[in-house]
Every structure is written in C-alpha cells, then in structure tokens.
Amino acid sequence: MSKILLIEDDEIMPKIVARILPATEYQLDHVSNGKEALLKLEATNFDYDLIITDIMMPYANGFEILSKVKNQSRPIPVIIVSNAGNEDMIMEGFKLGADDFLKKPILPAELLIRVKRLLMKNT
Amino acid sequence: MDTIKTFFEGGVFIYGCMMLLMYAVLAIQSYRGIKLFRKRSSFTDYYQLLESPLTPGISVIAPAFNEGVTIISNVRSLLTLNYTRFEVIIVNDGSTDDTLDKLIHEFQLVEVDFAYNERIKTQPVKRIFKSVNTAYDKLLVIDKVNGKSKADASNAGINAASFDYFLCTDVDCIIERDTLLRMIKPFMAEDYRKVKEVGEPCPECGYVHIEEDSMRVIATGATLRIANSCEVDEGVIVRVRPPEKVLPRFQEMEYIRAYVLGKMGWSMMNSVPNVSGGLGLFDKEIAIKAGGYDHASFAEDMDIITRMNAYMIDNNLKYAIRYIPTTQCWTEGPPNMKVFSRQRTRWGRGLSEIITIHRKILFNPRYKKMGMIVLPYNLFFEFLAPIIEFTGIIYYIYLIATHQVNWLYALILLIFVYLYSVMITTLAVCWDQLTYGYYKTWREVIGLALMAFLEPLIYHPLIVFFALRGYWFFLTGKKTSWGNMQRQGFGKKKT
Amino acid sequence: MALLQLSAFPSTIESIFRNAPLAIQIAMVFIVVAITGTALAYYSILRSRYRGYRRDKKLSVLLPEIDNLIIDEVLTNPDMQQDIPADQVPLNLEPFQRLPLDRPWARQALTDRIIHFRRNVRGNMGNLLRNLYIQLELDKDTMKKMKSRRWEKKVQALVELTSLNMSIADVTILPLTNSRNRELRAAARHAYIKLSKNEPFKFFDVVTDPLLMWDQVELFRIITTTEGIAIPNFARWITYSGNKSVVSFCLKLVVHYNQLAAVPAIIKLLDTRDHYLRADAINCLGKLKVAEAEDQLVRIYTSQPLHCQIEILKAIGRISSGRNIDFLKTEFLHSTDFDLRKSAAKSLVKNEWFAKQVIDELLATSSPENLRILKHCMNPLIKY
Question: Rounded to an integer, what is the distance from CA C68 to the centroid of its chain?
Fold first, then answer.
C-alpha cells in the first residue's frame, strides 16, 4: 500500500485521480492548497511515498512545496500535474527536482504508469 | 444685489443640473459596460493565458515601508498570483523596522549585482536581493534610501522591472488571485482597430502596405474595496464582508460608486481620469516616457495618468485606458476620523495640485477628451463642488437670517437632491451586484445600500470639510509633518 | 379626518406643482424619478440575490450527483480498463435520467461539467465523455444556442462545440467568420480551424483585419492542441500574406514547430520595411538557431532601429555559434545604450563556451557599471 498526497485546487481532478489509482493499492490523501499541503506534510512527518501536485495554488505554489520536500533527508518523488505547460515552468520544476511532469488534460493510463514507475524506483 | 442673487441662484441651479446629468450619463454608460463585460465573461477563458507561450510578462511592483508585521504573508500572496510570466518587485523604502530582515530570512535572499538602469531618477538604491531558492525566483527585493513618497519607491521598481507591463500596488493591498489574467486582457483585446490597405503591393517586399490605425491600451484599472471587515488568512481573502464600522462602511459604498459607476462609465467613453494607486496595470514604455511617478505630488496616481495621456496626444498616438468592473483589490480603509481626515485632506490637496500643474491641458482642444472633458469635469465637479456647496450653505444661512426663504421650495429642492443622490448610490450597488454577487447574504448588501440614506447627512459633509482643508493647505503651501506617514495613511492590519 | 387629508394630498401637490417655477417643477418630477429608480434598484438587487441563492442551492445538490454519475458510468466503466475504443463502449444512460434533464439549467450544468472533466482528462476517457454529451443529446441545446439571435449565445455555443470537438458543417460556421461582431468572428474562426474537415488554415489567406494578441493566444492553443490537424508549411503566409499580424503569428508557429523549411522565407522577411515585423523575424531566426543568418544579422545591425538591434544581439546569443564574440564584445564595451550593453553581455554569457577568455578579460577590465551588467548576466539567480 503506497501513500500518495495529491495537492490540487481543482475540484474534479481529485475525483478523477482517485479512480485512476485503485484504492486497493494506493492510499490517496487530498489537500486543496499549499498551506494545507505543508501542514499535512509536517503533521505526518513527510510520510508519503509520492506527491502529485499542481503548480499554481493559493498560499504556497507547487515549487515551494517541491523545494521543501526535496530538502528532506528522504526526498519523496514528485509528479507535477498542471495546465501551465509553459516551457520555462517545466524547466523550473525539473531544476527543483521534480521527477515527472504531466500536462492537463492527462491520459489516465500515462498517470498510472508514471506513478507505478516512480514508486518502483524508490523501493 | 438682486441681480447677483438671481445670477448666483441660476448658476448654482444649472451647475447642479449638469452634475446630476453627468451622474445619469455615467450610470447609463457603466450599465452598458457591465452588460458587455458580463456577455464577454460568459465565454472568456482567462486560464488559457496560463498555458500560452505568448502571454505577456508583468512586473508586480509593491513598495513597502515599515510593514514588518504583515510583509511575509503579503509577499507570499503576491507570489502565488495566478499567472506564469511575472515577477514580484518589493521596494523596501528605507524601512526603520525589520521589514527587510524578515524578507531576507524568510525567502533566503542574497545580495546580487543587478544591472539597475536608472531611467527615472530616484533616491539611491542601496542593494538588490534575489532568492537562492528557485521556488522564489520570481521575487526581487530592492532596498533603497527612503524617498518620503510612494512615487519614488514605485519609480525604483519600474527601473528594475524586466517586463513590458507593470502592476503598481501597495504591499498592504490584498489582490485577488486572477487579477493579472483579468487586467492584462484589455491590453491584448482592444478591438478598436481600423485597418486600410494603402496602394499597390510594395515592389521591394511584396507587401500591400497596411495603415494601422490601432489604439494602444496604456493602462487598466479595476474596482477596489475596503478590506476592514473581510476575513483574511495569510494574505488571502476568504470571506468578503462590508465593513462593520460606520466610517469604513461609508467608504466601501463610496468606492463602489466611484469605481463601478464612475470609472466604468468613463471607460466606456474612453476618458478614464485616473487609475488608482492601489491597483493599476501600466504600459511600462509609455509610463517611463511620460516621466514616471512624480515624487512631489500628493496625487501621484492621477498625475501619472494625466502625463501619460498628454504624452500620447503630443505624439499623435491613439490610446485607451480601460477599466474592468470586478473587484480585484482590497485595501485597508482609514478606520478612524484622524487617519481619514488626513487621507482626504491629502486627496483634496492632490486634486488642487493636478488642476494647477496641468492647467495647460485644461480647455485645450488639442488635448481632445483629456482637455475638454476629463480635466474640466475634474475642475468643475470634483474640485469646485466642495467650494460651491460650501458657499451655497453660507448663502442659505444668509437667506434664512434675512427671512427670504421660500421654505416649501427649499424643502422640495433638498428632497430632490437627497433622493437623487440616494438613487445614484443605490444604482451603483446594484450594478456592482450585477458584476459578481459580492457578500454572502442579501442582508449585507441591503445593509450597505441603506448607507446611501445616511451619506448625504453624515459622510458627505465630512468629505467637503476635509477637501476644503486640503485646498487651504495647498494655497498656504503648508508643510505637512506627515513625512513617511503620508503613504501610510492606512491603519495597520491586524494579524 | 385623516382620510380626508390623504385624499386632499394629491391635489395639494398638484397645485404646488402648477404654481411653482420651472426649477421646482423639474425637481418635483425628478423626485418621482429618483424614488422609482431607487425602488427598482432595490428590487433588482434582491431579485438577483434571490436568483443567485436559488441557483447555488440547486447546483450544490446537482453537481455532486453529476460528478458521481460521470465517475461511475464513464470513468470507471469496466470497458475503459480494457482499452476498447470509446465509440464501441456502450454507455448506461439510465442513471442519468435521475437528473432533472428536462430543465435547461440542469442540461447546461451537465454540459459545463463534462467540459470541465475533459479539461482534466483526455484520450479514451475524454472521447467517452464526448459520447455521453452526444448520447444525452446535449448537442441539440448547443445547436439551439447557435441559432440564437444574441451574439454572446452564439459564441458560447462555438466554445462548447470546440471544447467538445464536435464537427459542424462549414455552411454553419463560414458566414459567422465574417460577422461584424469581432468576438463572434474570432470564435467562429477558431472553431473553423479546430473543426473543419477541409482546409483549416484557409482563413489565413483571407483575413484582412489584424489578429489581436488575445485571438493569437486562443488560436495558438487551438492549433497546438488539436489532435490530427495537418500542420502546413507556414512559410506560405510569411511570404505571401499581406496581413502583418498573420505573418507575425506564423513566425511564432514556426518557432513552436521548429519549421526549418520556413527559414528562407524568414530571411527574406529581413528586408521588410516594417521594423516591428523585422524584429519578429530576427527573434524567430534566433529561436530557430539559424547560424547561417548570423552574418547577415551582424551586417545589417548598424542600420537598424534600437529594438531590432536588441533582437539581433539576443539572436546571436541564442544561436551561440561563437563566431561573433568580438562583435558582442565591441557592442558591450562601446554602445551608449544601457539595454544594448545588457543584451550584448547576456549573449556573451550564452556564448560562454567560446567566450570564456573574453569574459574573464572583461571582468578584469570593465568600468564599474559594465562590470555590474556583466555580473548580472552571469548570475544564475537572475533570469531576465
């Protein structure tokens, strides 16, 4: 059972992701902005196997979360899912250590494969 | 004596009618504008700007002076604006508190060698900071010697700005997340364009030359509201509420009227007189060519717009200044009489200054709408209104003292003016509700609208008094002891 | 007694009105106008609040229901897991009958929600969502809007059709592409590009009014995201179009698709008299990294206006062939314009691979201001 944190301010996306990643294999927690995300991460002592995050959100953006996560002793793999497909932003994300980037609208199968691959790599 | 009397009475009556007519015109124009805006927003997808490589860049400039208490959350909220290509320039205007230290610590700033091009002269810039953390790479902090004005600090920000457009705001303003998306649109979609092809295809390049008679949008503004009773969480508005205290509540109503009804109406006639200093998006090239903000001005926001207008007309360029009716910015309104009187006196002084400085434009047909409509309107209906009202009252008292009053007619006239002003204000609240259903309950809306009945009796006399005081200070050239506080006219935010 | 007074009231008013001077008469008329206006304003505020409240309440019930149905019937459709093409997947429409689909507002809400879902997922799931839209006959509502007399309804319909990738007959769209209303015209063109089976780029040939920046953003998104659109060689319009904004837009597309075949046309464009267009062409050559154009750019440099010169310096930086280090160095040292020096310095830094020595030398010998510019450009923390 892998623990995944989804940070996303769109109301529909979490529902979709919850269907793509079967509940039998993944435990999915959802928060809807940067502040909640940081609180959640601190409360659980960064105990997640994977983080899926949007970039532009209130309070703290995806990059800030990314930089916090990657500065941990045990870096958690991060997938950015965003509709901002601006090249600069993608580069910036990778510079901060993002492991993957998916542009919305996503292909469900693609998300599933990338999640699996990242989880495999880290176990 | 009788001729003077008739002349005065007739003059005031015509003046009054003109003023009321102006308001009616503005109300109708702004209604048209809001209708059009609503139609457009029924299909406009602002978010496509987020994924486009063609989106223009914007520099967000926010001067800060002794804002240590709130600086971090406010900068954070600026950094999380919904936009892809932008930078946030915080100008620390020689704060004497820990504003800069807090910024350095929180955002991991280091001093950098920055190619600062002083196109507009300002007080010296001491240091420029960037963050070592890529997550904050949109942030640029300028530390400069205090210039005793917001204008000087903004100018330093403009000098350091890298993009073609800049958004000028205050650190203590709270900006709605989609503001940049919404405010950049008028720059990109000004549809007044006449194009004609001229002559045969050019032998050299094969093009039919096109004479483009397009309009350049040089600034956009949006509605501001009072933040006093809104619920704010770390620089983000979570619940909009009309101010509970009476004084800020009057201001909220006044702001709605001035922006939704006034500026929106002017925008439809393409003669916006002013873009608020709290929130305005500008074309950087034109702003710099017009000389930037005037640090000696008491109304630097109106001054720069007037000069940008003049620059465009002097160079025979077609231009527009646009307004959007939605509220994009919440600002702390003066909570008590002391701060309020200081703010309004300053405004009065600023207005007299604008009229005198730009008197060459006034009634100059060369400056088209600017010279023939905008400034004359400001002269007659903004600047002279308090004076005329004041003399009117004196005159009335004289009439009463000499028993010359027809009480019935006086009463009818008073009721007329009173009810008309109530109507205009109520319409403004109504138009505002059409743009977006601000506030949570209908009680809050009605509670605000009902203030219109009290305004002419309580709030308006105060404004007249403070404006006259401002004129007086202007005439006597009184040195104000506000110093750094002048831009700090706002109350400190609770955390 | 009171009743008597009340009935006398209108006549008193009337007599006052008759005997009053004109000013007072006007005032009296306007008192009535003001009272009516205020009352109407209050009525309309309350009405819009009430409607908004009702709408929010209805939607707060309906939307979760819609979401659940879409998730159960579309997203977790068992056939979806087995990669069966969307058009062969039978949809169970029965549960959707639970929704109040006889109501236009509910149908609209469902359409909007389907579009919202499609903004988040594509591929087979996206196609199945589209099938749902068709099978529930929501497209009929959209077509009805197309026929509306109100232009904003037509635009809404066009937006819906494009986001759902519904094909429309050319005869329906083409007349709208020449509409007098700019927004309708633009929306129709966008729809045409996305949905036309024939020649999607045809209107590039005929359009005479400038494409606004806003329209370009929209067009760019449509062109670059539509699947299965045949991308033509944009050199055709760069060479032949008489519409400046079309040429400039095509240059951006050329960069996006890295169409090196268009390079000769762009180089020819350097001779245009329009210096804004020329700047765009230079920018495009730089982004395409066309090293062959570099010498020509350097040659024309001195005769160009400032913004073209800046573009040339930037282009040399982007191409970064290392062949024009001396040129950049001269510009950096001797140009009087701040922006030119900055662009030159930036391009030198981009050519660092070849210009290492020159940069070191400049670092040791430059004036304080130039040194600051150079350090600015070398600092990885500063992007622009």
Answer: 32
Residue B128 identity (one-letter amino acid): I
Q: What is the pLDDT of residue B222?
A: 96
CA of C341 vs chain B CAs: smallest distance (Å) = 10
- Neighbouring-strand partners of residue B109: B131
C101: left (phi over 0), alpha (psi -120 to 50) or beta: alpha
Q: Please identify among residues 191-250 of chain C the ones whose CB lies closer than 8 Å to any CB of chain B.
A: 208-210, 212-218, 220-221, 239-240, 242-244
CA angle A88, A94, A97 (to 5 degrees): 145
DSSP B211: E
Please indicate, yes or no, if residue A72 is contained in any of the structural domains.
yes
**Which residue range(s) make up the domain with A92?**
2-47+55-103
Give the model confidence (pLDDT) of A38-83 as tens digits: 999 999 999 999 999 999 888 888 899 999 998 888 889 999 998 8
Strand-pair partners of A92? none
- Is A114 among the domain residues? no
A2–B contact, CB cutoff 8 A? no
pTM summary value? 0.92
Residue A42 belongs to some domain of the structure: yes
Q: Name the residue facing B412 among C24, C213, C272 (closest C-beta).
A: C24
- Enter the ipTM: 0.92
Residues β-bridged to residue B197: B210
pLDDT digits (tens, 9 = 90+) for C70-122: 988 888 777 766 667 777 788 888 889 888 989 999 999 999 999 999 999 98
Q: Do A12 and C125 touch (CB under 8 A)?
A: no
pLDDT tens, position by position, B132-167: 998 999 999 999 999 988 999 999 999 999 999 999
Q: What is the pLDDT of residues B300-328, one digit of tens each?
A: 999 999 999 999 999 888 899 999 999 99
**CA angle C280–C285–C291, rounded 5-degree value:** 155
The sign of the torsion formed by the CA atoms of B316, B152, B263, B466 equals negative
User: What one-character-per-residue DSSP string does B269-323 give?
Assistant: TT------TTEEEEEHHHHHHTT---TT-SSHHHHHHHHHHHHHHHTT--EEEEE
Say if A34 falls within a structural domain: yes
pLDDT at B484: 39
CATH number of the CATH domain containing A39 = 3.40.50.2300
In chain C, the residue whose alpha carbon lies closest to the alpha carbon of A82 is C120
Report the number of distinct structural domains present in chain A.
Answer: 1
